[in-house]
Amino acid sequence: NWGGLGEAIGKNTCLEKLSLASYRRNLSTDHIQAFFRGVAKNRSLKELRIEDKLYNPDDADVFAILITFFQNNKNFERLKIISSPGYLHSLAATLGKFDSLQELSLYGCKISDEALIELTQKLMRHSNLRKLDLSHNRKIGRLGYDGLIRLLQNPESRLTALSLRGNCIRDEVAAATLARGLAGNSSLEELNLSPNDITGRGWEAIFMAFQNPNCKLESLDIHPSRIDDAAARFLSNALTNGITLKALNLVGSCREITNAGWQELFESLRSSNSIKELNLAGNRRVTANEWQIICSILSSPNSALEKLDVSGDGINDEVASLLMHALANNNRLKELSLCRNHAVTPTGWVAFSSVLQNPNSALEKLDLRWNNGINDEAVHSFANSLTDNSSLKELLLAGIHGITANGWAAFLPILCNDSSIAATYGSNHTLQEIMYACLEAFSGVPEDVSSLLRLNHENSSSQAVRLKIIKTHFRE
Predict the structure, then answer these.
(1) Is 54 helix (H, G, I), strand (E, B) or coil?
(2) Rounded to an integer, what distance in angstroms lies between the CA atom of residue 343 and that of residue 373?
(3) What integer is the mean pLDDT of 146-163?
(4) In principle, which of 10, 95, 105, 296 could form an S-S bond with 122, CB 3.0–4.6 Å?
(5) For residues 8 and 42, what is the distance between their CA atoms, to the nearest angstrom?
(6) Which helix (H) or strand (E) holds 29?
(7) How far is CA 91 from CA 94, 128, 253, 254, 324, in A?
């Protein structure tokens, strides 16, 4: 009874999100129309998501049926169409009949130049549009991006987030066209251009656009990308003289950058003092000289850095030591990921564990997964360093085969020292996770350690203290 189901949704006053996928391909046109006529009466939905080919657009114009829903539902904010290219013309026509959309996602919809021009023309009237996701639409070319820049340059635009992820923008003219749109925009705060095949000259044009004094960009994701030294110089100039980025994702992005390019880029990050999130994972060409600049950012009292990912960067004992000393007095960094750095030896990890003894540390998450150099000795050292640590909630150690039951047991007296009530009171009541809970049993983590981690997770520190003391010292 699809009509009845639609009517039930239409009458519901609490439902906020409706997601529809083509798990049933034998729905008739009558079923689809009856269902959406009921849905059109709903006034509580905030998000509608249609995935894959739910219906044949030649048989049923669902968006025409939903016009009254879009016009009269004052709560509606987000429309997400996933891998459904046949709906675009009908969608564009419907977008022209209301003006309240705040977020539109057209992921993998095979958007053509003509379709994008039509869609962006209609979106001009949606002055409250904040997010636009056009990811994985590889058919968009020069003309399509020309239509997009008119939306970006609209003086009434309030667009804050744009994703063009996986669009394979190989054409330098298309990249230059996009750059013109970015240069004329003063509202965009988040831009995702990963992964794309933009050439070095294309990146130069885009990075030059960021030097626009009205640019408000705060988050930039360009991994992985074909950035060379020349393009890196334009990004460095933008960081120094233009944008005040807060988040920069360069995962595996810069295999064509030489050491000189890295040094220039890191120097610009040091001078900007605005970066809060920096992802450099998978960039093995960074040497100790460039790491010294990153470490100087971490050790600076003016650093704003709160999240750093340097996984798979070929870090060795020397670089680990640099990071250790940089973090000795850091009081801003909250998350650090050092996954898959196999060149760090057990000795290097033992030395690095002292970062957890920093009394002013703000570190809440330390991700050390898949590091072959971590063994029982290193785990004991990390556990002991947590004795007086009151900030770290996650110490992730999954995927490490060198840790035995003896290593995992090192956490037991740290989490609950049962030698006296005072010792239990002074135990660690902050640590909540040493690997994802679903993997603990398969990795040899003792149940008593897991139960104490759960206790910390499910209770405040004061409540955890009380429960541990009762359980340990006042058993019947």
Answers:
(1) coil
(2) 7
(3) 92
(4) 95
(5) 9
(6) helix 29-39
(7) 5, 18, 35, 38, 54
Gyration radius of the chain's alpha carbons: 27
Q: How far apart are CA 144 and CA 135, in angstroms?
A: 14
198-210 pLDDT, tens per residue?
A: 888 889 999 999 9
Residue closest to 353 by CA, chosen among 404, 387, 400: 387
In this structure, what are the phi and psi dihedrals at residue 118, rounded to the nearest 5 degrees? -65, -45
**pTM (2 decimals)?**
0.89
Residue of 286, 294, 285, 249 lying closest to 267 (CA atoms): 294
What is the token pair recorded at 208?
């030059």
Task: Count Cα neighbours of 354 within 13 Å in the Cβ-side half-sphere.
Answer: 14
- Residues near 285 by Cβ (< 8 Å), separated by ≥ 6? 254, 255, 257, 258, 259, 262
Q: Is 473 exposed, middle or buried (0-12, 13-18, 19+ CB in 10 A)?
A: exposed
C-alpha angle 27/76/12, rounded to 5°?
60
CB 254 within 8 A of CB 261: yes
Per-residue burial over 163-186, b if 16 or more Cβ lie within 10 Å, else e, is: bbbbbbbebbebbbbbbbbbbbbe
Residue with tokens 């002055």: 127
Q: Check whether 336 has a pLDDT greater than 70.
A: yes
Whether the CB-CB separation of 60 and 30 falls below 8 Å is answered with no
Q: Which of 119, 125, 126, 127 is nearest to 145 (CA)?
A: 119
